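Hi Q.,

Before the meeting this afternoon, I wanted you to have the zinc ion prediction in hand. No need to reply - just skim if you have a minute. The sequence and ligand are here:
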Amino acid sequence: MHEYIQFPPIDLEVERKVISEKIRTAKQHALDLEIEGDLIEQYTDMTHVQYLPSENQPADFNKEKLEAMEARVLQAIAQVKTLPEFRILMKEAGFNDKFAMDMLAHENAHANVAEQKSDTIDLHGYGIIFFQEHGQVVSATPLVLNDKKDGATSFQYLQDEIEVLNAPNEYGNKNSEDDDREIQMRRDTLEKYYSNK
Ligand SMILES: [Zn+2]
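Predicted structure with the ligand bound:
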């Protein structure tokens, strides 16, 4: 009689197929640089408005518009949950090994700190966002997906997010320009609205 060990039900071929299907769908909905080139920045800025004290939110802040933007951005993202899946995702998306390893270190730094901040931050996983121009996919950027946990205060969240955003610099990789821009945005908000808390 043999004892059979039940391996985790992960079939690499199946997983590759699932992930390449996610990539195919995201590419079909890639953000159009000509008409949606600023969308990520607009979305990031608008998301940030949520963390201002409500009396300081602009009168025209519109939650539905933000949700519509988020839905559009998510369409262009192939998203996975775990680091091993992210590795496959980058390979299937065609990134070369050197770039993929660098991105893995970068996003992993963000994710590790986000995991330590689980009281304030929900870590959703990893993704690649695609961009197109004249109907052709022309670029793609890896990212970590997270947001504020229900019940966390904006003050706590902004402080913890700064650490998450700054993680690549702290853990042997390098912040991106967007990381630094977002850190500055959060620092400004903390200083302007929360400095006497
Ligand atoms: Zn980053």
